[in-house]
Specification:
The chain is α+β, with helices and mostly antiparallel strands. The protein is 31% helix and 40% strand. Strand 16 and strand 17 form a beta hairpin.
Length: 379
């Protein structure tokens, strides 16, 4: 009996040890907690865009000829009125000289006719006096009067010819002036299309020589999808980033929405124009950008993860850890994005909220892994 009792006692002790070391109670769910933080939040519409100069001019040639001299290269800064290129002007100088000679000839002819007209007027006046005294015939008087009228007509025709020659001379001088090309605005030479010695033909169209742009102010053309364009309006705050900008943000506002869309691969896109100040010259023509149109934003406010929010018919509630207990608190929220929401009331910066539990996440992950067919490896 002693042996049996001793054996039973040992079995009982072993069973108690196994019971204490083995957790047969349901696993208590470990909660996932997150503190309430203070920060900035914004809700935005994203798009892509490209930068271009707001003010630029493609400078062309109005005359044909050989490019004799290029005074600028790409990247040079120029001022309005600065000489940037010159075309061989030999032919145009010859035309100006011919026009000046023709004008001088007409002016000399006019002086001669005016002198003859003065003489004819004196003769006609004298013949009128003589005719009254019956000293000359009527035919002689009519001849002198007719000669006066003829010379007056010649003087008027010569004056008209002088005006025409002056117009031709002015045109030839203007054409000669076109052989020198000046910068039409202050800016930077962003491209040069011709080289010295190249022959250009301006008879059919104006050949382009170079492009000058004012890079101090740029225009951002953002392509916005038709699903988002209705939420964008002029004056809306916007910021953008460029590739390799070290996370720098440029801020501006929407200037204009263009009504005509462009269709790219069956996607309808509308262009939104944004003026950008580029006084420091960090931005360049044709840069690709990521654009963010700000719909709502809040700065230096309390933020709660979206996973902590539970929507009820009476509003939002969150589970807050108070010491070792969980309390449900009603909260008012403001701006929301994809991860957080602004807390307007109900929570403080010291609160810790429940955003989930590890058991559910583990069960979800296990279910996902167990969905693979048995006996095969899931790749």
């Amino acid at each position: 009996m002693k042996i049996l009792l001793s054996g039973g006692a040992l079995l009982l002790i072993g069973w108690l040890v196994m019971f204490l070391w083995t957790d047969n109670t349901p696993a208590q769910e470990a909660l996932l907690l997150a503190p309430i933080q203070r920060g900035n939040i914004e809700n935005f519409i994203s798009a892509t865009g490209k930068l271009e100069p707001t003010h630029y001019v493609e400078v062309g040639a109005q005359v044909s000829g050989q490019v004799e001299k290029m005074y600028v290269t790409a990247g040079d800064r120029v001022k309005a009125g600065q000489l940037v290129a010159e075309i061989d002007a030999t032919v145009f100088k010859t035309k100006v000289a011919n026009a000046e000679a023709s004008l001088e000839s007409q002016q000399a002819q006019l002086q001669q006719l005016q002198a003859e007209l003065s003489l004819a007027q004196l003769r006609a006046k004298r013949n009128q006096n003589l005719y009254q005294k019956e000293a000359i015939s009527e035919d002689t008087l009519f001849e002198s009067l007719a000669n006066e009228k003829i010379l007056e007509a010649k003087v008027r025709a010569t004056k008209a010819g002088i005006r025409a020659d002056k117009a031709i001379l002015d045109g030839d001088k203007a054409t000669l002036g076109y052989a020198k090309i000046y910068a039409p605005l202050n800016g930077t030479v962003v491209d040069v299309y011709v080289r010295e010695g190249q022959t250009i033909n301006a008879n059919q169209n104006a050949p382009l020589l170079l492009k000058i742009a004012n890079l101090k102010t740029l225009t951002l053309r953002a392509d916005v999808s038709e699903a988002d364009i209705s939420r964008i309006e002029p004056g809306m705050e916007v910021y953008f980033q460029t590739f390799g900008s070290d996370k720098r943000k440029w801020y501006s506002t929407v200037r204009l929405l263009l009504p005509t869309p462009s269709i790219v691969n069956d996607v309808v896109l509308y262009q939104v124009l944004i003026d950008v100040d580029n006084q420091d010259g960090r931005l360049m023509d044709a840069m690709t950008t990521q654009v963010f149109f700000i719909q709502d934003k809040a700065e230096n406010t309390l933020l709660v993860p979206l996973g902590a929010l539970h929507k009820t018919p009476k509003g939002y509630r969150v589970a807050v850890q108070v010491e070792n207990e969980i309390e449900h608190v009603k909260v008012a929220i403001g701006v929301k994005n994809k991860t957080h929401a602004e807390v307007r009331s109900g929570l403080s910066e010291q609160d810790v909220v429940v955003v989930g539990n590890q058991a559910r996440q583990t069960q979800t992950a296990t279910s996902a892994l167990g969905s693979a067919p048995r006996g095969r490896r899931g790749y």
